[in-house]
Amino acid sequence: MAVTAVHQLAQCITCHAWSADRSMVALCPNNSEVHIYRLVEDKWEKVHVLQKHDQIISGIDWGARSNKIVTASHDRNSYVWNLERSEWVPTLVILRLNRAALCVQWSPKENKFAVGSGAKTVCICYYEQENNWWVSKLIRKRHDSSVTSVSWHPDNILVASTSTDGKCRIFSTFIKGVDARDPKKESRFGELIVQLDLSSSWTFGVKWSPSGNTLAYVGHNSVIYFVDDVGPSPLAQNVVFRDLPLRDVLFVSEKMVIGVGYDCIPMVFAADERGIWSFIRYLGERKAVSSGSRYGSQFSEAFGKFYGQAKLGVSNDAVETSRTRGVVHENCINSIIPLSRQGTQIRRFSTSGLDGKIVMWDLETEQDLLELLVH
Amino acid sequence: MAKAERFVEADNAEAIITRIEHKSRKIESLLKQYKPVEALKTALEGTYAMTGDERCKSAHWIVVHRTIMAIKDVDGMLSSLDPEYYDILMKYLYRGLATGDRPTCDQCLRIHEKLTEKAGLGCILRFLTDTVNTV
C-alpha cells in the first residue's frame, strides 16, 4: 500500500508543514494557533504551541534551510517565527492587506516569501537587514478576485498565482538588493509575465515542475491544467477527470503529478513520451463497487430520491460510512507536501485534510508508478 | 459602428441557424433509419461553435431534444458515444430537466443516471461551473 502512516492529530487541519529533518510537523488545527508536534518513539508529542494570530491560519511554510516558519492568517497578518533556544519568537510582517491572507510560501532561496490574499493581491516580503524587519511589497497588478495559491519558480524570481477569477498569473518579483541581476531576464518587480486564461471556474493549487518548465494547476470544474514551456507561447493541456475537483497538486517528478482534493484519494497524472498528460490511476484502493454504494450512504440516498427509486432497501450501503469514498482520508484533502527528494524526484509525501489526519505516502511500493517516474 | 456590428452578428446567427436546419434534416433521416445514436452524435457535434445568441441556442436545443427523446436503449447509446461528448450531453440534459415537461424530464433523468455512472460527478461539476459555454 502506498500509505506508510496515518496520524490523527486534530479534528480538522487547514495546513501543515514539515521541519527540514522531517522530525517535526507544524499544523493549524482549524483555529488561530500553530501546533508543532515531534515524533518521539512512534508517538506524536505536542512540543510547541504558537499563539499570536487572532484568526484561523490559512498557510504555514517551514523553511528547510533557514528553519524559519512563516504563517499567514485570516487576520490579514503574517508572522515569521525564529527558533531561539527552545522558544519560537514571532516577528510581525506588516502586509498592508485589508482582507485575509490565504496562502504563503517561502521562495527556493528562502530570502523572500509570497502571500496570496483575499484583497486580490500577492505580497512579496523580503528581509531588510538595516532595519531588522520584513518588508512587504504588493504586486500592483491585481487579480480580479481572491488569490488562492502561490508557487515559486526554481529561479527565485517568478511566482505563479491562481485566483478564484479562473486565471493563473505569473509575476516577476525581482527586488534590487535581494536578487542578483540576470542579464538574460530583465524584469521589473510586479511585471506580469504570462496570464493563463484556461479555466472558467475557481483555480487552486498551482505548482511548478522541478525544472520550472511546466506548470500545473487545478480548476473547480474537475479539470487539471498543464502548461508546458511557460512563456510567450505556452502549450496548454486540459485533462478532464471524472471525480470531484482537486485542491492541490505536487510534481513528484518532471513527468508525474499527484493531485489531491474532495475525493479523498490522491490521483496520479503522468505525461507520456509525446508530452501528453493523462490520468493514470488512484493511489491506494478505491472500492470498485456497483453504482449505488460507491458514494456512501448519504450520496446514494440523495441519488435515490433524485431517480425516484427506493435505494434504501435495495443495497446494504446504509451500513457503510464514508469509508467507501476514500480508504484513508475521510474528508477533503487540502494540501500535499513533499517529504523526501531523490534528485528531482519525490518518493515520499504527506497529505493533510479536513478530517484532521496527516497521512504519509510512499511511492516505493507502487511499481508501475516508479517505472513511469524513472522515464 | 454599433449597427454594423449587430449586422454581422445577425448574419453569423443566420448562418448558424441554416446549418442547424441542414443538420436537422440529416437527423430526421437518421431517425427514420432507426439510428438514434448516430442522430444524437450529429446533433451534439459543432455545438461548441455556437454564439451566445438565444435563437441559435434554442434551435440547437430543439434538434438535440428531438434526438434525446428518440433514444430507447440508453446503455447502448452511452457505450458508443465518444467521451468528449459527455460534458455537452450533460448540459443538454439539464436544459431538458429545466423544461418541466413530464416526458422530457423522465427521459433526461433516465439518461442522467447512466451518464453520471459513466462520466462521474466531474461531468456534473463541469456543467455547474461553466458559465461561459451555456446551452
Structural features, described:
Chain B: One of its GO terms (cellular component) is Arp2/3 protein complex. Chain B: Keywords: Cell projection, Cytoplasm, Cytoskeleton. Chain B: Its main location: other. The complex is a heterodimer of chains A (375) and B (135). Chain A has three helices and 28 strands. Chain A has helices spanning 296-307, 311-314, 367-374, and strands spanning 3-8, 15-18, 24-28, 33-40, 43-51, 57-62, 69-73, 78-84, 87-93, 101-106, 112-117, 122-128, 133-138, 147-152, 158-163, 168-172, 192-196, 203-208, 214-219, 223-228, 235-240, 246-253, 256-261, 267-271, 277-282, 333-342, 345-353, 357-362. In chain A, the strands form seven sheets. Chain A has a four-stranded antiparallel sheet with strand order 1-28-27-26, with no helix packed on it. In chain A, strands 2-3-4-5 form a four-stranded antiparallel sheet, with no helix packed on it. The longest helix of chain A is centred in the C-terminal third of the chain and has 12 residues, at 296-307. Chain B has seven helices and no strands. The longest helix of chain B has 31 residues, at 2-32. Chain B is globular.
Look at the structure and give the CATH class of chain B.
Mainly Alpha
- Looking at the structure, the CATH topology of chain B is Serine Threonine Protein Phosphatase 5, Tetratricopeptide repeat
Distance between the termini of chain A: 22 Å
Total helical segments of chain B = 7
Biggest beta sheet summary of chain A: 4 strands, antiparallel
Question: What class, by secondary structure content of chain B?
Answer: mainly alpha
Derived from helix and strand composition plus strand pairing, the structural class of chain A reads mainly beta
Outline of chain B: globular
Low-confidence stretches of chain A: 287-295, 310-324
Number of strands of chain B: 0
CATH architecture of chain B: Alpha Horseshoe
Radius of gyration of chain B, rounded? 15 Å
**Content of β-strand of chain B:** under 5%
How large a portion of the residues of chain A is in β-strands, by DSSP E? Answer: over 45%
Helix content of chain A: under 10%
User: Distance between termini of chain B?
Assistant: 29 Å
Family (chain B): Belongs to the ARPC5 family.
GO cellular component, one term (chain B): Arp2/3 protein complex
Keywords (chain B): Cell projection, Cytoplasm, Cytoskeleton
Subcellular location (chain B): Cell projection; Cytoplasm, Cytoskeleton
